[in-house]
Amino acid sequence: MVVKLIVYVGVSLVVICTPGPDTALTVRNAFAGGRRSGVWTAAGVAIGQLVWTVAASLGIAGVIRASEPVFVTMKLLGAGYLVYLGIQSLLAARRAGTEPGATGPAPRTGAVRSLRQGLLNDLANPKMAAFFVSLLPQFAPASGHALPTMLGLGAIFSTLTFAWLALYSLAVDKLRRVFSRARVRRAIDAVAGTVLIGFGVRLAVSN
């Protein structure tokens, strides 16, 4: 069991450290609203993963994965949400370019808004359902302890995700203090918006 746990943590770290929509959103919010905004976004992502963990453990995520209409609908909604966030970021970049004398850090983003964005960004991605359905059972025993084990493994994954994204937020916050000019902020908003839209399009067209 110890060996399985070590392998699971290793696999989880590889997946978590690979940049994706959750990372892009956390970086964007951390740069736009500071460390607090990034950490709250990370918390929302982690809560979303806990929801998917429970859904996978109870078999709900498997139903979503097996039902093509539900999966496709969720995929399109998730893609639409990513594109929406990307457009918001592009509009923020455009506004920053028209504001005279805009220097210094961007205004803080509310904690509730950041938490909600992180949560919805994760829940709206049906690939998370497929991921947890595929990963958790491989490391859970076949006995009656499968459910609590899967819940525990999902909690580990969510905790590691939160820690990684929170570290991202701290690093981005440091950069935010250095690169506080409006031109740099505008460029980063534009890049973040483009990346989020790209993730949305990729999610929409993926099988």
How are the elements arranged and paired?
Blueprint: H1 2-17, H2 21-33, H3 35-57, H4 60-66, H5 68-98, H6 111-123, H7 127-139, H8 146-178, H9 182-205
Structure characterization notes:
The structure is a single chain. This protein is an all-alpha fold. The protein has one domain (22-205). It has helices at residues 2-17, 21-33, 35-57, 60-66, 68-98, 111-123, 127-139, 146-178, 182-205. The two termini are 34 Å apart. 41% of the residues are buried. The model is unreliable at 100-107 (pLDDT under 50).
Terminal Cα separation, in Å?
34 Å
Output the number of helix runs: 9
Average pLDDT figure: 82
Order of helices and strands: HHHHHHHHH
Q: Structural class of the helices, strands and pairings?
A: mainly alpha
Uncertain residue ranges: 100-107
Q: Strand fraction band?
A: under 5%
Which term fits the overall shape?
A: globular
| Approximate helicity band | over 70%
Q: Cα-atom Rg, whole angstroms?
A: 18 Å
